[in-house]
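Hi V.,

Quick status before I head out on leave. The structure for the redesign project is tokenized and pasted below; the design run finished overnight.
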């Protein structure tokens, strides 16, 4: 976090701890106590909720390395309201609650960083609700990719995404076959280029505006 002073960054580096998770492993369960702020050092994470019938809904696009989340639950001091699941082998870092609130109390820059985070995340959640209810499967795939290009939430992401079609299907809530069809269509239109395990965004404006 570039907003911190050298002394604050040293405290953070000393207090952080990391854990490794296999693909499909739950990092945090819905209902657990929120006593850490969570960052991604490596891999890809999904936030989701599940109905009694087993239907899953992603609350955010895949969360890549360099990203942080979970500040809302910490600030409200409430149980976590979603499951955190590793989509691939991932290394997750945790900041203890005590240090999070120390930084909140003493750093204007850290407060501003959190404000931007929360605002961007709110916009993303509203967009996800629209995608789930109104968009076609192809449009949902396009918007899932587009929302990953957000340098305020995901500062380490560039226009070349390391993601598989299976992972993209999990995030957008569509079958792998429909993901393949959507990517083929978007590639035909010159919006992106697809390789095995990699998607290059060629026209982010067209991707965000894609409609059928």
């Amino acid at each position: 976090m570039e907003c911190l002073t050298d002394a604050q960054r040293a405290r953070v580096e000393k207090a952080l701890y990391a854990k490794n998770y296999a693909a499909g492993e739950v990092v945090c369960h819905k209902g657990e106590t929120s006593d850490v702020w969570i960052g991604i050092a490596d891999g890809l994470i999904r936030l989701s909720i599940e109905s009694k019938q087993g239907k899953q809904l992603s609350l955010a696009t895949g969360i890549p390395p360099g990203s942080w989340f979970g500040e809302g639950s910490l600030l409200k001091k409430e149980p976590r309201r979603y499951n955190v699941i590793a989509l691939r082998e991932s290394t997750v870092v945790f900041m203890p609650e005590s240090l999070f609130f120390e930084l909140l109390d003493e750093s204007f820059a850290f407060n501003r960083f959190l404000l931007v985070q929360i605002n961007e995340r709110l916009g993303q959640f509203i967009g996800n609700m629209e995608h789930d209810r109104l968009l076609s499967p192809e449009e949902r795939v396009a918007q899932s990719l587009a929302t990953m290009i957000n340098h305020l939430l995901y500062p380490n992401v560039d226009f070349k995404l390391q993601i598989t079609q299976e992972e993209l299907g999990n995030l957008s809530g569509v079958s792998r076959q429909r993901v393949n069809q959507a990517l083929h269509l978007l590639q035909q239109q010159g919006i992106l280029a697809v390789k095995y395990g990699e998607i290059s965004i060629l026209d982010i404006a067209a991707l965000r505006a894609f409609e059928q």
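Above is the designed sequence. Helices lie at 6-15, 71-76, 97-106, 108-134, 137-148, 165-172, 176-188, 204-208.

G. will cover questions while I'm gone.

Best,
W.
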